[in-house]
Amino acid sequence: MLRKVCAVAVASVLAAGCLTACGSSKNTGPLTLDQIKENGKLTVATEAAYEPFEYMDGDKIIGYNADLFAKICDDLGVELDYIDLPFQGILAGLEAKKYDVVGATLGVTAERAGKYTMTYPIQNGTTVFVKRKGDDSIKSIEDMSGKKVGTQTSCYNEDDTKKFNEKLKSEGKDGYAELLKYDSFPEAFAELKNGKIDLVAQNYASCAAVVMKNPDDYEIVADESGKAEMVGTDTWVSWAVRKEDTELSDYINSEIHKFKEDGTLAELQKKWFGEAVDLPESDYIPAE
CA-based angle 263:267:268, to the nearest 5? Predict the structure, then answer.
């Protein structure tokens, strides 16, 4: 047991040393754009395991976020230094100045907005349900009593899914037959495809991407007009910058605004998700 603890401790020290060396935020004060240009790079941390936002293609990180950061760095005249890290602890590493930005797909919450500057939203993360293509037993989200629903454990979609079940029961309906929690969403979608569950609950943007890639297998549960029916509170996703690094957060926000105005954002949304989504015009901070 002691050997295991020591091994973990040594690995942690080595990892911390590597991250400190990799990061470009070596100053003790706020990070400025001039310092980033002097360093010649913007160091962005993510967990490259969330297709289509960010994921590995060989030894390269690709995806919607990757495309956006590449354009931001081009405009700033620096290289994109992309670091793939486990999601757990990634925000703590930002506080420790091991990198400049957390560019993972972050749901904007009041708690996060209190600790970090959350950039303007870059996608819609509100929870929706996906069913098998052509499953006429589910015509709306009100038809879920007696159905087996799957989602990923320990994500906000799980909370939204549980609360919606409670809503159904409060209305005198039976509620789900079962709520199954998976280690990953690909597992849940595989179970949906083979008929072991009836629905998957995940964020809207990711579900749109799944449907775009598998139009014969899945469809989002929608109303009569074809508009996706969403549950839980409106959730938007964005990136995190340290509170004191206002030059950097202002610059990233100006770029997101520009991308909205010149059509870049819509173009990339269609590329990665199959459709463009309207986003809030400024930073979005939900109620507590």
Answer: 120
**Burial profile 148-173: b = 16 or more Cβ within 10 angstroms, e = fewer:** bbbbbeebbbbebbbebbeebeeeee
Helix axes 64-76, 246-262, angle to 10 degrees: 110
- Name the residue range of residue 143's domain: 127-231
Indicate the angle between helix axes 264-273 and 204-213, nearest 10 degrees: 60
How far apart CA 10 and CA 117 sit, in angstroms, is 32
State pLDDT tens for residues 104-127. Answer: 999 888 889 999 999 999 999 999
* H or E, element range at 143: none
- The domain that contains 220 carries what CATH number? 3.40.190.10
Task: Locate 98 and state its tokens.
Answer: 């091991």
Q: Identify how many contiguous H helices and E strands the chain contains and give both numbers.
A: 10, 15
Q: 19 forms bridges with which residues in the sheet?
A: none
In the chain, where does DSSP find H-type helix?
2-22, 33-39, 64-76, 90-95, 110-115, 156-170, 185-193, 204-213, 246-262, 264-273
Cβ(46)–Cβ(83) under 8 Å? yes
Whether residues 37 and 180 share a domain: the answer is no
Give Rg (Cα) of the chain.
20
Same domain for 82 and 133, yes or no, is no
| Count of structural domains within the chain | 2
* Same domain membership, residue 164 and residue 138: yes
Percent of the chain predicted with pLDDT > 90: 73
In tens, the pLDDT along 159-215 reads 999 999 999 999 999 999 999 999 888 899 999 999 999 999 999 999 999 999 999
113 with 147, same domain: the answer is no
What's the confidence (pLDDT) of residue 5? 32
